[in-house]
Structures are given as structure tokens and as C-alpha cells.
Amino acid sequence: MKIARGRELLTPEQRQAFMQIPEDEWILGTYFTFSKRDLEIVNKRRREENRLGFAVQLAVLRYPGWPYTHIKSIPDSVIQYISKQIGVSPSSLDHYPQRENTLWDHLKEIRSEYDFVTFTLSEYRMTFKYLHQLALENGDAIHLLHECIDFLRKNKIILPAITTLERMVWEARAMAEKKLFNTVSKSLTNEQKEKLEGIITSQHPSESNKTILGWLKEPPGHPSPETFLKIIERLEYIRGMDLETVQISHLHRNRLLQLSRLGSRYEPYAFRDFQENKRYSILTIYLLQLTQELTDKAFEIHDRQILSLLSKGRKAQEEIQKQNGKKLNEKVIHFTNIGQALIKAREEKLDVFKVLESVIEWNTFVSSVEEAQELARPADYDYLDLLQKRFYSLRKYTPTLLRVLEFHSTKANEPLLQAVEIIRGMNESGKRKVPDDSPVDFISKRWKRHLYEDDGTTINRHYYEMAVLTELREHVRAGDVSIVGSRQYRDFEEYLFSEDTWNQSKGNTRLSVSLSFEDYITERTSSFNERLKWLAANSNKLDGVSLEKGKLSLARLEKDVPEEAKKFSASLYQMLPRIKLTDLLMDVAHITGFHEQFTHASNNRKPDKEETIIIMAALLGMGMNIGLSKMAEATPGLTYKQLANVSQWRMYEDAMNKAQAILVNFHHKLQLPFYWGDGTTSSSDGMRMQLGVSSLHADANPHYGTGKGATIYRFTSGK
To answer: The Tn3 transposase DDE domain covers which part of the protein (predicted)?
Structure first.
């Protein structure tokens, strides 16, 4: 069967990984362990090499699924495991492929006995239909290839050449994209299409060197009221395009996210080169996803502003205590002296005022009392009473926050949302007095102490608004209140399957636990109690574990790295030659060839020598988080436009994944890493990165010294 040649998706290393036979026990037990019937069929052959060859053909058809002639290498441990079951020498396989007819006769018999099916046009159409449906949900090529191979195995279809599968996946993905683009484009009105054209062709009024799309994609910068208002301006611009009417809710979330990421990388000139359906669809999906990101960023700025407000209050209190420390100590001394004088006057029945003036002059005493009144704070004081002056810094953006963002909650949090509506209404009407019947029960005790004026009934507008905004932040972060149009803070129900979808799919969940909560919690409770009983019975036998008076104690672990090992490690590092990071990266590229995976997105051409240098510079700029502009300034001979071009057209997601696969596979084959482990475990932790540019996610953390940075979650394998 001939299939039209399309684009190949995998590198040679990735093809080898797909066709490689693992040596783990699960694969051996599942696919390479023969039943009694299998052995009876295998043993019909007289010669050892034919018995072993037939058995190996049967095994590899089961997994990985290709014919024996397509498999380049079979691990010795697998051959030994198979030969041991049929009682022959593993070396007899060397004599098996003597006659090609024998190979095909055995394959024909296996197809007949085990109902394996040859991959023909009929199987191609069936598989393509399956892949097309999957590609509507997920356009990732590697994922589709895995699904394709699993589907063929499940239906006992002998796998064709892997390049055939690649081309089939490519065609299915292309057809799915075409269908998606047509679906989205048809739901757009002519007016909406004109607006979409406008954002990639028209210049922004206040920034003549940028298109509207470029303006919309600008990073937010550091969190501030001004940044908040800029984000809201972009959010309202997109909302003004009325894209919410476009019907995309029936499209799979994964596919929408993939197309959105694609849209975030394309510059306006790239969009202009696309066909209309593709251009409008990717733009629409990207802008709809961008509204979610902008909504999240807007509330994140509010989160940071509230944190900043409270932090400034604490610092103000600390500063007051620091400045007034000497005066407060002086007042304590005065209080002690006056107290002792009063005690003496009472015990000895002396004139109080004479005794008092013997320790402090009357005028000094009066001045001290007045000064103490100025220094005095409320009896149960905290820093919240110092925040009233900070109210107006919040007012720079909070009216816009409450006007633009819409909040929903469960019934338990309705009082909070009622308070939000009251403040929103006061902002619109210009009223200053908070209604006496405004809800206050949801406000914490700390804020309530400052909520009322001196008369005890009038609500202080400043403190009421600050308290509501603080409680709103806390409830949104806790998930009790959702934000309409947000991704990070959306309603919890949106994370779940709909009831209809769940009823249709729950029978195929393949979960190893009961879907009944009562059954599940009963089983877990029983299992937990059994383990507790075992622990109680064996606590004396466990190393470093003790159970005393109902308390479980674990001994502190000793240092993993002895001092001798640290010294030896330091001596090894001293032996390594000093090398520039740029030279090291070029050496790795030369050794592994990972740079060849950065093929051009439009013509699939590999980078030449000059382009490779530009790619390495772009990788360094991104990896060191200095950005392409500063990298261009620091690299003689390279311009920002060159770096931007390769990052746009060569450093897309698939290319990055392929390049990373080359590096991981190369590392996996090395002998030295095996001294650390086999790579089946990992250590995960947050890594603090100092940021040299303005970022919404940058914050100060005294634990890591001065300056702002961000914490990135990463992992290192045991190898």
C-alpha cells in the first residue's frame, strides 16, 4: 500500500526509542511470557533456531508490534528469557534468518494462529479516523504517535514502517487543524474579522512603533496600580471585540491551549502570511486565552498590593517603636519613680504631692504625661491602625478592579460579595457614607476593631473598603470566590467533568479503586488501621523509629555527604579546565547534534553554522533570563533581530522537545551517570532565580538576600 509522503515528525533517536524493546520485568512478564498453547505452537518446529526464531517473531509482534525484520536490535536479556522458556540456546538465533521464505512462512502462521492483521488500506482508514478525532483534542505529534501505536496493538494490527505512522499522524493533524480553523472562522462575523485584521495591521495610537497586537502582548512589568490599569485597558480592548460570542466551548481545552501558545509566539507579520481561516482562528483563540491571562494578572497585582499594604503597616509600626524606644524607656522610668513615690506616701501617710515633687518636678510631670499621650497606641494595638493613610494608594486602582472583574461564590460567601457590590455602587454614585446595614460578619476581628468611628455605629469608609478588599483577596486565593473569565481563579466546577460527560466515561476510567466514595473511604480506613496495628507491633524493630506515649518519633538522618567526600569533590572540580559557558554549549551541540532539531518552522531546513551560533546565543539569553535585547548588546556581531528571528521560527515547542530528547537520551547512554542512580527517581525543589528585568512575578525574599527574584520548580533525576 502506498501513502502520500508527508512531513516526518521524529528524529532518528526518537524512532529508535519507539522501536526499542525495554528490559523491565513488567514488559517481559506481559508480552514475552508464553502460555502452554504458545509453547505447543512454537515446538512444532524441529530445529532449535526455527523454534527460537518463531518465538521471537511472536514476541516482538506482541510488543513493540513491528515485524521481526523491522527490529534492529533485541536485548540479550530478552533473547535469554525467551530461549529459557522453550529450552534452546540463545546463540541458535544467529542461524535463524538463513532463508527468507522461512521468515515469511512463520509470520504467515503467526497471523493465522493469533489473528494478527496486516496493515492495509482498510486498516489505514480505520486508524486515520481514530487519529483525526484525537488530533481535534491534542495536536502534539509524540502523543498522537503513542496513541496510534497503542490503537494498532490493541486491534492486533501489525505495525508498518514508523515513517508511515509519522506521515499518517501528520495528515491527521493537518486535517484536524483545517477542521478546527474552519469551525472557528465560520462563527466569526465580518465585523469581528475586520477587528482581527485591525490588530495586526493598525498601529497603536499611543505607541506608533507597535501594532495593536504587539501592544496587547506586552509583558506587564512590576506590580503597581499603574500596571494594573494598563492590564485592564488591554482586557477591555479585547472585550470590546465581542469575541465571547464565538462558539469554541465544544472544542477540547488541550487543543485550545496549544493553539493559544502558538498564537502567542507569532508576530503580526507572521499572521499576515497565513490563510484567512488559520489567521482568524489562531488570533481568536489566542485573544480569548489572553483575556484569562490578563484577568489573572490583574488580580495577582491586587494580591501583591494588599501584601504590600500590610507589609508597609508592619514596617511603619516597627519604625515607630524604633524611633520612640528611648522616649518610651524614659516614660517607664518616670512611671517606676512615680509609682514608688505613691506607694511610699500611702504607707507612711505623707503628702502625696510633696512626695511626688520630690522625685519629679510638677511641670516636668505634666509634660511627660502629655508626651506619653502622644506616644500611646490603643491597648490592643496592631499595625492596622496605621493603614488609614495608605487607603488612597489602593484607590488608584480598586474602583477599576471592582468595576471590571466579576466575582461569584457559594451561598456561604454571599455577604462578602454583597459588600463588594455596595462599594462598587458607592464608587459609581459618588456616595461616601457606608450604609449602616452593610454586612460585616465576614470581616476578621482584627479589622473589626478599626471598622467603626468613635460613636460605635458609623462605619469607617476607609477601613471598611480595605477590610473587604483584603477578605476578597483571601477568599479568592482559598478558592471560595471565583472570578469570571479567569483561568487560575475560575469556579471549581469548571475543573470537573460535566455530569453527562462523567456518566458516559466513568465506565472506562480504568481506576483500581471503587467509584463509590463510601466503598473507597471504608477500604482506605481499614488499610490505614491495619498499617497502624503493624507499626505498633513492630515499632521496636524499626531502625530510627520509636513509639512512646502515643507519639511517633523519627531519628534525625545523618549527613548524606561525609566531609571526606566533599574534599574529594572539590579536588575533582579543581582538575576540570575553566571554560566559557558559550564554548561549553557549542561543544555539547557538536557532540550531540541537538541543535539540528531546531528546523525552520516554514521550510523544515536545519540550521547552518552561522544560524547555530545565533540559536546558542538565544538559548543563553533565555536560560540566563536576561532577554534577547541584552543578549544582543553583550554579543558582538549579533543583532536583536537575528535572535528574535530564530526564537520565533526555530525555537518552537516541538523543536525544543526534540532537542531536549537528544540531550536526555545522550546522557542516558553515558556510563558515568549510573554511579548516581538508574534515573527512575528524582529530586524536586524550588530554585530561586534573581531577575535582572522587571517582572510581575518578581518579589523580595529576605531568606535569599537582597534584590527581587522568582522561584522556579524543577527536578533532577537520580541519574
So the answer is: 583-717
